Amino acid sequence: MPANPPPPRLNGQQQPPPATQTRPNLARLGLAFAVGIGCFYLSPAMPPIWTTAALGVLAIILGLFKQPNVCRPLAALCVGLLYAQIHTALQLANPFPDALARTPITIEGRIASLPTDLDLGRRFLFDVEQASADGQPLPFTGLVRISWYEDAPRLRAGERWRLPVRLKPRHGFANPGGFDFERWLFAQGIKATGSVRRGAGAERLDAGPGPYRLTRARQNLNDHLAAVLGEARALPLVQALVTGDQSGFERDDWEAMTRTGTSHLVAISGLNLGLIAAVAFFLIRWVWSRRPRLALALAAPRAAAIGAFLAALAYAALAGFSVSTQRALIMAAVVFAVLFWERTPRHWHALILALIAVLIVDPRAVLAYGFWLSFAAVAVLLFNLGQRLPRRDPWSRWGRAQWAVALGLLPLLLLQFGRASAIAPLVNLVAEPLFTLLLFPLVLATALLSLVPGLSLPLILTAQLLDWCLTALAWIAAFPWAAFAPPLGPHWVWPFAFLGAALLLAPRGLPGRWLGLPLLLPLALVRPAAPGPGEVWFTLLDVGQGLSAVVRTQAGTLVYDAGPSYPSGFSTGAVVVAPFLAAQGLAQVDILVLSHADRDHAGGAAGLMDRIPVRRVLSGEPAALTLSGAEHCRAGDGWDWSGVHFEFLHPPAPQAGVKALTGNDASCVLRIATAGRAILLTGDVGTGIESRLVEQYGTGLAADVLVAGHHGSSTSTGAALLDTVNPRLVLFAAGYANPFGFPNKAVAERIATRAIPTLDTGITGAIELRLGAEGSLAGPWLWRDRSRRIWTHVATGARREEAPSPRLRDQYRQ
Predict the structure, then answer these.
(1) pLDDT tens digits for 417-463?
(2) Which residues on adjacent β-strands are paired with residue 632?
(3) What distance in Å separates the CA atoms of residue 703 and residue 681, rounded to the nearest whole number?
(4) 547 and 711 in contact (C-beta within 8 Å)?
(5) Burial of 113 (0-12, 13-18, 19+ CB in 10 A)
């Protein structure tokens, strides 16, 4: 028999091959389209659009004539690239200019979101319809994120306002291991952030909702829930489940849900929306099938599919059509379309079809962490359970599903968040059915019932039940082993980790399945590179308008200042410094130096110490700190770590009859030296203290790298210090477009006249340098350049001199 038999004959005529052999594989093309979109957003910058278009045209031409199985997916990939590029080009058009950063301007438009209450004001999205500066129109429109800190009135969604503001382009901290705020802003379509100027005359132009009637209705429902439940701890959870508003959660409750792996239960997504749709589907089909006239007009399953989709649509509208809700709604639409047209596609094809639909609606969905987690969770379940014989015991199937999701998502969770919940499979074994089958329907039913006057008691009792659940989650989350955050190893460990998880979840008959565990081990065992003897790895972190530096040696880790904290509870020690240390595989801080007690230097210490143990705390103002056990740093104190010498040069020991230094001039001045190279950190000391140091130490102050004093203020980094230190590089730790105008123009010119290069964390992100044991100076490496993506803000010309108010000048001392 020939290896390739000819096509069969019918009535003496040769028949064409089956249609499946020539019909393009739509699932393959759709997956290639999605890969193209993903590849585009992985690019460090937008490629020339003509290259993508030319490649796509070439692939289409080749696909029409030769090798369609190869070229058509390539053409689909190029279409995905081109589609994402066009969408992004439209979004990036008309950006907010750097030249106007923090310039007083006036904007008019409507409140485009639910206003969020802050400790000192309110925050909301604002759709700018027109903008002006000094009465002259500005060519800027779009979505901005506004904070109104003082004297903020009661705001309603959809209201039209004229607001005096200061804005800055989409910009956030840029540090290894930190949250990419610019990515989040870009994914939300936000072009700029800023605040309302105090006392400049904001004016409400229209109190109506305008085109934001749905958002106003959601706000009214939120207000009703708040009026019924008052100060109940579970109020944010009720609002999250009913209207999708998660802004009210306390940090402790959100942290507890994260550590127990239950945060997905309060996000209106596939689980919640699927339950609503499923209940509507079976209820409508049951009712419809018992009405013969209705059943003759339209089959019950089709009617149920339509009704279920409408129910899902209504709930998605109630949740404000958030990104996660849109994704879940599109997936539900695919499922119900299949039911309506009585198709039976493979599960993988349905998943890919939903993926394509989500990306067509908004290709930026690939930037949302929930996008990857939701699709990956479904893919893991299909891969692990789709080819297995079902078990009769539902608890066994449910337990296997929890194990599969936990293992399958483990590498993805660690890659995206740097930590994962160890107890999530066990907790979700009970929490998911409890929330899905009992609490979620109960919350919705009692919330709607409370709209009837006099029937609010069921909602109050439900909130008490939720309060007990939150208490239980907090108790579980308190166990140290509830979550883990292994150090993030080199890039090569991730492909092995994903392959290892896939092998462990594969059917048992697959050869080599046992290799899954060894492939996962590098993720836990391979640690990031570390300094050798005599080496100093120095990183000046980007903490905004504040200071924090991490000094690593082979023998120990020192953190100099922890950045600022704010009355809202936001702490750079918790969200910048601690994640950076965890990403480097550092389990503790040996010495934390808080130069002085000002909030932009010491404010983040508490948040840092809540997450990483600190063995010793030194400060120039230990009594002014709220930390127990803090000790004085004294001139002359020093130590050696594996060939690296640390020495404090200031403040001096107290002397009889001499008033102790306070404030900026009490800052710990630290010099770090190895193999003839040195780094000098002066905190916020002024030029007077600098002159004393020059007189006392002379050339002993010499250093290759100088961290400019007081963030580049005119009160520091004087000529005498520069001439004595004679640095090869000066680093500024200052916030982008900060209200103080740091670094000061005079200081910058003073340094420039000496031909000394400068770098600014507000512009470059985190700055890394390495001093070698042989006397080398490597770097600097700038994190904003190393991690650059299409959405990364590249700042140009944002510095100006301003005159901050006395209140603003004093806020860092509070």
Answers:
(1) 888 888 988 898 888 888 888 898 899 999 999 999 989 999 999 99
(2) 619
(3) 10
(4) yes
(5) buried
